[in-house]
Design goal:
The chain is mostly helical and about 70 residues long.
Length: about 70
């Protein structure tokens, strides 16, 4: 009985290790606003100079992800 449980735990550990290794790495903050047409210095530990630039860039990224590559 313990053999099945040990195998299940080992498989769980393998899946967990693979998931941790393949997770998306966080992008470090940029010193210059990431909104393409802005170019202003970023504020604090963010990658944008203001909330409007952040919203604009997120909309652009969403639109780019929705385009079909056919």
């Amino acid at each position: 009985m313990a053999d099945i449980i040990d195998e299940a735990n080992q498989e769980y550990d393998q899946h967990l290790t693979a998931a941790i290794a393949n997770r998306a790495k966080p992008v470090p903050p940029s010193p210059i606003c990431r909104n393409g047409d802005c170019g202003e210095p970023s504020v604090g530990k963010t990658s944008y100079c203001c909330n409007e630039c952040c919203a604009d860039h997120q909309k652009e990224m969403w639109a780019a992800s929705q385009r079909k590559l056919a």
